Amino acid sequence: MVTDIPGTTDATFGKEIVKYEEPCPNIGIHRYVFLLYKQKRRQTVKPPPQPSRDGFNSRKFALDNHLSLPVAAVYFIAQRPTAARRR
């Protein structure tokens, strides 16, 4: 999770408050969503109380940090690769 990204640059100029976790679904298909919020001003954004993405509530996070609605979103789906069958 990256905050304080200047509007004239890219995410590398922001402040990382939660490290990126690569997808690792155990079973079935999982959806992963990236949301972009515009901060009203430069402010301290509190990281989520639990570092795990399980059960993360983006609406509560936005409310707790006084963020408006998302200005952009992108998602992808992932599933665990199937194991090769032995003959």
UniProtKB/TrEMBL annotation:
Alphabetically sorted, this entry's keywords are: Cytoplasm
The membrane spanning regions, by residue number, are none
- InterPro entries, sorted: PEBP (IPR008914), PEBP-like_sf (IPR036610), PEBP_euk (IPR035810)
Report any Pfam family annotated for this entry.
Answer: PBP
For this record, the Gene Ontology CC terms, alphabetical, are: cytoplasm; nucleus
What processes in GO biological process is this protein linked to? Answer: negative regulation of flower development; vegetative to reproductive phase transition of meristem
Q: Which organism is it from?
A: Cucumis melo
The record, for SUPFAM superfamilies, names: PEBP-like (SSF49777)
Identify this protein by name.
Phosphatidylethanolamine-binding protein PEBP
Q: What does the UniProt entry say about where the protein is found?
A: Cytoplasm
Principal place of residence: cytoplasm
Secretion signal, residue range per the UniProt entry: none
